[in-house]
Amino acid sequence: MSLRSPTVDASQVAPGLWIGARPSPGHYRWLGVIVLAAREWQPPSFTYPNVAVLHVPLADDPSRPMPTAQAGSAISAARTVARYLRAGQRVLVTCHLGLNRSSLIAGLAMRLAYGTKVDNVITTIREARGPQALRNPHFVRLLRDAHGR
Asked: Which alpha helices (H) appear in 32-114, and where do they start and end?
C-alpha cells in the first residue's frame, strides 16, 4: 500500500510498517508512532499530537562508515519499532526523502519483528520506495550484520 499525494509520501513495507519522507503535520493521524530519522529535521514531538514520536537523528554519508554510536541508535530504534509492531501499532519511519535512514531503521525492525531475511528486506524496500532506497553501503552492511545484536 502506498500513500502518495502532495502532503503524504509513504509506502507500506510490512504489516503495520511504513517508510516515508518528511511527514506533514496533521496527515498522519492514522498512525500510532512516527520515527524521525533525519538529523537535519527534528521537529518537536508536539508537532504530531496523539502520536508517539521517536527522535533518532542519523546522518546519511555513504562516503564514510557509520559512527558506532549512530549504529547503536539505529539498532535501538529498530528494537523499539519492533516492539510497537508486535503490539499492533502502526509505525511510520521517516527521513528527508524516505530512502536511506528510514529504510535502515525499518529494515532492521522488519528483521527483528518478523524475522524477514535481509535480502527480502532490501528487495521489499526498494520495490516500495524505488531503486535509490538503501543505496548507502554502510546501512546495507549494518542490516546484514546487526541481526542478533
From this structure: 68-86, 101-114
